From TrEMBL:
Superkingdom of origin: Bacteria
Keyword Ubl conjugation attributed: no
Domain HTH gntR-type: 1-54
The protein, known as: GntR family transcriptional regulator
Record InterPro entries: GntR_C (IPR011711), TF_FadR/GntR_C (IPR008920), Tscrpt_reg_HTH_GntR (IPR000524), WH-like_DNA-bd_sf (IPR036388), WH_DNA-bd_sf (IPR036390)
Keywords in alphabetical order: DNA-binding, Transcription, Transcription regulation
Organism: Amycolatopsis dendrobii
Pfam families: FCD (PF07729), GntR (PF00392)
Lineage: Bacteria, Bacillati, Actinomycetota, Actinomycetes, Pseudonocardiales
Length: 193
């Protein structure tokens, strides 16, 4: 899905995907069910799984939910962050930047996901982190290919270190503004996709 080989509206069977990937059907079925639970696929009786097309309204609703949940969660997480946490998160920010420079969308997505979820986990609220993870997963594929083509992944990548600097300085107003701006940029990326 990240590479764009699986397209919205198309139907795929577990057996066909397993053959294509050279693995047994069991782990593929488990992965497909995980994607169903994340809202990325829907089961089609006796046929397989369809990649869900996300509408502009869906994207708007997800953006609004992320804004309502992710901003205060990030502020809470930032307040709980230790210097060691910031060093670890800085390593992830470096990985995001490296992937962006290489135009490696899959690696960018993975490092970006780890950065945000590791940061949010510092809030101590696992359910909130899980809810945000689900929202992120429903939209993570939108717009990134175009950003990579135009060399703009680096713009998004640099925002992570800015957030870490605000946390290190305990500048909560600045952090709030940066998280809101980051989410706004993400929503613009979805529109570009």
């Amino acid at each position: 899905m990240v590479s764009g080989e699986l397209r919205p509206g198309d139907i795929y069977s577990a057996a066909a995907l397993a053959t294509r990937l050279g693995v047994s059907s069991s782990p593929v079925r488990e992965a497909l069910l995980t994607l169903v639970n994340q809202g990325l696929l829907e089961p089609v009786r006796n046929r397989g799984y369809r990649v869900v097309a996300v509408t502009e309204r869906d994207l708007d609703e997800i953006y609004e939910m992320r804004l309502l949940l992710e901003v205060p969660a990030t502020l809470s997480a930032g307040a709980a962050a230790s210097p060691d946490d910031l060093v670890r998160l800085d390593g992830l920010a470096a990985e995001i930047e490296s992937a962006a420079e290489a135009g490696d969308v899959a690696r960018f997505l993975e490092a970006d996901r780890r950065f945000h979820l590791d940061l949010l986990a510092l809030s101590g609220n696992g359910r909130l982190t899980g809810a945000i993870a689900t929202l992120r997963d429903q939209t993570r594929l939108y717009g990134l290919e175009k950003l990579a083509e135009h060399g703009r992944l680096a713009d998004s990548a640099g925002e992570h270190r800015e957030m870490l600097a605000a946390i290190a300085e305990r500048d909560w107003a600045r952090l709030e503004g940066q998280v809101k701006a980051h989410l706004k940029h993400v929503r613009a990326e979805w529109a570009a996709g």
